[in-house]
């Protein structure tokens, strides 16, 4: 199994040199999951880490009341399960395949880092970026209304996974409205109302598991 040529910029695998990728591949085992499959489970104590080579997943957690909170969407090149693999603590979230995915399973991730000091520093930088992103999202929850948070998530999806199309940007990501609600910290009804508002303004068009954004600049301004 070889890494996809369309790695998401900034993700773990895209930061490695060809030699480091070769060493990582040699230390790993390829594996595939079907759409909807659970890749990792919250609370699990298994110690392997995963680097996605194709496909996208959601990282989520559940509240005591059973509500799903979507923490992140990850794509090709992402490193998953690294915190548990290093600390030995239970996994802090569940990872679910949003589409068929492939990845490299590393059973001794700390051992790989011990032999690759530069990669360990890159991982530290990546963790810092995740913390900044988490801080930014906490600010959004307190400062933005639901429509602003939905617009922010749509802008993020467009910038990361969007495909140019006639007059706009198409995002074909299999996220339901319930999952989008869990990602924005709002109810499904509030998200439906926000999407309707953005449609009425001509900024987006929605379909089954897809969104077409016709005015990304205006959507960015609404997100702010």
From TrEMBL:
InterPro entries on file: cNMP-bd_dom, cNMP-bd_dom_sf, Env_Response_Regulators, HTH_CRP, RmlC-like_jellyroll, WH-like_DNA-bd_sf, WH_DNA-bd_sf
Alphabetized UniProt keyword annotations: DNA-binding, Transcription, Transcription regulation
Ranges in coiled-coil conformation: none
Domain annotation HTH crp-type: ranges: 144-217
Stored SMART domains: cNMP (SM00100), HTH_CRP (SM00419)
GO cellular component term of the entry, any: cytosol
GO function terms (MF aspect): DNA binding; DNA-binding transcription factor activity
Ranges of residues in domain Cyclic nucleotide-binding: 12-106
PANTHER family with a match to the protein in the record: CRP FAMILY TRANSCRIPTIONAL REGULATORY PROTEIN, DNA-BINDING TRANSCRIPTIONAL DUAL REGULATOR CRP
Protein name in UniProt: CRP-like cAMP-binding protein
Organism: Sphaerisporangium siamense
Lineage: Bacteria, Bacillati, Actinomycetota, Actinomycetes, Streptosporangiales
